[in-house]
Amino acid sequence: MIERGLLPEVLAALTEAPAVCLLGPRQVGKTTLALAVAERLGAHYLDLESEADRARLADAAAYLALHLDKLVILDELHRVPDLFPVLRGLIDRARRERRGPGRYLLLGSAALDLLRQSGESLAGRIQFLELTPFHLGEPTGRPIDRLWLRGGFPDSLLAASDAHSLRWRRNFIRTYLERDIPQFGPRIAAETLRRFWTMLAHRQGAPLNVTELARNVGVDVKTAARYVDLLVDLLLIRRLPAWHGNIGKRLVRSARLYVRDSGLVHALLGIEDLEDLLAHPVIGNSWEGFVVENLLAAAPEGTAAYFYRTTGGAEIDLLLKPPRGRLWAVEIKRSTAPTVTRGFHEACVDLKPARRLVVYPGAERFPLGNGVEAVPPAALALDLAAAAEEWQP
Predict the structure, then answer these.
(1) What is this structure's pTM?
(2) 157 and 114 fall within a common domain
(3) Are 282 and 201 in contact (CB under 8 A)?
(4) 60-85 burial string, b = 16+ CB within 10 Å, else e?
(5) What is the DSSP string of 313-330?
(6) Residue 60: per-residue pLDDT
(7) 355 SS3 class
(8) How far is CA 268 from CA 166, 262, 291, 328, 341, in A?
(9) Stretch 195-201: mean pLDDT, rounded?
């Protein structure tokens, strides 16, 4: 098994909080990670998609009270939302009995429901972590182009061939549309949502314009906004907000939308292999989204992410704001001979970032002048991981 980079954070969180909630889309490896935790800590595991395990919770308070002496893992917790008040009572009981933290590890695929319900019931008792698909900082042994083409979902990345990987991703999309999404919101026609999701893939990294999205897919604006919210809540797309500091410039305010996993972008667009990808118009935006997701996966907890653009054309693809310290400005280029645009230099004059970086698909890092450094994505991911101690509040 490839050990996930999040495992030490999960183990550390269980020494600090009574409950830890592990969020992530389906098939990203949450259960595998949880079972690795269970093996280390001797935990009790319940899969709430299993009728047998749900039946054990007919009297949840009584059943879970039998296991107060160990960590209990509850997988797909959104299937039994009325458990949260029960967990609160048991956590408080464990505190009175001085049993210490690490009572529950909760797994779920829908961020909004779990955040809302757990925030209401377990405030002050829970810590949240997000498991992303595989990223560059994890020891998958696969080259970067394969990770970019196939994305980071384990079954896709580790498939025996590109064709096998593509079939898995197409089935993943179909399952989400036909089975999973209806669990989390009002009934939405699968074909309509597929067209919407595909349109987002074509517009990878474009500014969010809900009116245009609604018009193109043939729904009203409120419905289109609901589709965006749903896909964000399911951790399938990212809304990258615009920088909002007061610097005396007219700023672009619309967020940018990215389909978070590059492999899903390519499956939605019918891209079968690396040759197809290199010839496709989406190549630059796909690479940009891939780099954004990998850098955010490597960034220390608490790092905020933005893009920056003024109406005058000054622009930075990705701004990273640590819990303390100064901004990092990241420009993303697909070229192996990257150059720095005037707009990037102007934006850096506006914001005065601590580091000015151009990410490119090469193997070496080198200076580009004016304090700008060209750096491969994996090297920058390591820089971000190394900055964790320096950036802690």
Answers:
(1) 0.91
(2) no
(3) yes
(4) beeebeeeeeebbbbbbbbbbeebbe
(5) S-EEEEEEE-SSS--EEE
(6) 92
(7) strand
(8) 10, 10, 19, 32, 31
(9) 95
